Amino acid sequence: MPQTRISIFDTTLRDGEQSPGCSMNLTEKVRMAQKLQDLGVDVIEAGFPIASEGDFAAVRAVAAQCHEVKVAALCRTSEQDVARAAEALRYAAHPRIHTFVATSDIHLEHKLRKTRAEVIEMTRAAIRQARNYAEEIEFSAEDATRSDIDYLCEVLDVAVDAGASVLNVPDTVGYTTPAEYTHLVEQVRERVVRDRDVTISVHCHNDLGLAVANSLAAIEAGARQVECTINGIGERAGNASLEEIVMAMHVRADRLPFVTNIKTTELYPTSQLLSSIVGFEVQPNKAIVGRNAFAHEAGIHQHGVINNPLCYEIMTPESVGVPANSLVLGKHSGRHALSLRYMELGYDITSAELDEAYKSFTSLADRKKRIYDQDLISLLSGARSIGAAA
Ligand code: KIV
Ligand code: ZN
Question: Would you say residue 331 has pLDDT above 60?
Answer without folding.
Answer: no
